[in-house]
Amino acid sequence: MEDGYGSRKRNTAAFTFLAWSSFALALLGMFIGIINLEQLLSVKGYYAVTALFLTMSSFVLQKTVRDNNDDELLQPVDTKLENKFEEL
User: Fold this and answer.
1) Which of 11, 30, 46, 68 fits a disulfide with 15 by CB distance 3.0 to 4.6 angstroms?
2) pTM score of the predicted model
3) CA-CA distances (angstroms) from residue 68 to 8, 13, 20, 62?
4) For residue 52, what pLDDT is reported?
């Protein structure tokens, strides 16, 4: 499958849909569990805020790891070797 730039797309539309729908269902299930929790509203609020923070930080971590990996792949081989010697 071409993306218009001469390279293959990594994921099909069906796989992308599966990934987003499973994410949405997991998030919905977590919040349904929090709503049905028999605790004080402050406890439910704490769980909800920490769940949102975990979700947001997961996206940021995934993007950072992917970007760092892409940067390493784009870096010339000679520069990679020079960086290794500098670390020693």
Assistant:
1) 11
2) 0.63
3) 21, 25, 23, 10
4) 94
